Every structure is written in C-alpha cells, then in structure tokens.
Amino acid sequence: MVKKVKMSITKFSNEKDAILACQSGQIEAYRYLVEKYKTRAYHTALMFTKNRDDALDLSQEAFVHAYRAIDRFDPQKNFYTWFYRILKNLCINYVNHKRNTRKVKEQIGRDKVTDFTGNSADNPEQIFEQNERSQLLWNALNALKDNDREIIILKDFDGMSYAEIADTLGIPAGSVMSRLYYARQRLLRKLEKIDEVF
Predict the structure, then answer these.
(1) % helix, strand, coil for the chain, step of 5
(2) Structure confidence by residue, pLDDT tens digits, 85-110
(3) Residue 7: helix, strand or coil by DSSP?
(4) Mind telling me which residue stretches traverse the membrane in this protein (predicted)?
(5) Which tens digit of pLDDT belongs to each residue from 136-187?
(6) Which one of 38, 162, 175, 190 is most buried, by most CB atoms within 10 A?
(7) Which domains does the chain have, with CATH numbers?
(8) What percent of the chain has pLDDT over 70?
(9) DSSP per position, 166-185
C-alpha cells in the first residue's frame, strides 16, 4: 500500500504521463514537472524581477498556481508554454506593485550567467572576463524594452522553437522571426554603446 502512494519522479518518461498522473490525483507526479522546469522558471522570473529572492519566490508561487489549475490543462499541449503565461502574469503584477512602493533592486550582476557561447572558464582571468561579458550582456538586455528582452530570452536562453514562442506570446508564427531579428539588432546596438563606454 505504501509503495503505491510513494512514487519516484523518475517513473515518468515524459511530461504528458506526469500531467495525466497528476490530473488523476497522484500529487507526487507534479514533482517531475517542478524538477524539469524549476531552473528555467527561476531565470524567467529573474528576467522580470531582476532580484534573486523575488525570482525564487515567484517561480515557486507560479508552480503552486499551475498545480491548482492542472485539471484544466490540456495534456496534449506544451506544459511550459502554459506555465510561462502564469509565471509571467505573476511577475508583471508583482513588479508593477513593487514599482509603486519602492525601486526594484538590481542584483542581476551577482548571478552567474553564462554568455551565448556557453564556454567555460579555466582560470581566474577567464572567469573574470566571462563574468564581465555576462554582466554587459545583462545590462544591455535590461536596457531593452520588455517585448524585445522577452523574445530574446525565450529563444536564446530558454531555447524555445518559433512555434512555441508564437504560442507563448499569442502572436502569429510569421511574426516571431521578424520580431526576434529586430530585437537582436537592438540588443547588438545596446552592446556596442556599452562597449564604447568601457
């Protein structure tokens, strides 16, 4: 009897099985989804809040909201696309509320963020240079408008396909490529301006 209640998250070979199990009342099945997406959720929340503690709290809260609504989710669809909307709404509401009460603290520089190349550093000098590049990248991203920053994060950090981005943002698939292209151009211009300062 105990064996039936206690199950490992490795029991599920894909998220659809985990969702179906969760919808049938197997609460433990939700751990599979949390473990699979918690890092992406945290970094997405960090993009909106620019604060590590807030990002952690909001990403966890989003999982709670998603769990409460899991019965209404269509298992044939992509979970993260649906979850992303929940997380984004929570983050936007929180940031708007916080903006009215006090200035959002910038803590992005303290986070270890890899650059687009994903190269690892072997010595302190390389680590410093890599962290410096990452900081410049985040500074440039934060200087972009929300729509530009969001689409770059979804594609280049979250690795979403064009179809997934279209579904997530509720825009035609044909618009994704052009929006992403212009967002990247604006990011490059921001990086060039920041680089000129240094």
Answers:
(1) 75, 0, 25
(2) 999 999 988 887 776 554 433 343 44
(3) coil
(4) none
(5) 777 788 888 888 888 888 888 888 888 889 988 888 988 999 999 999 898 8
(6) 190
(7) 12-108 (1.10.1740.10), 122-198 (1.10.10.10)
(8) 75
(9) HHHHT--HHHHHHHHHHHHH
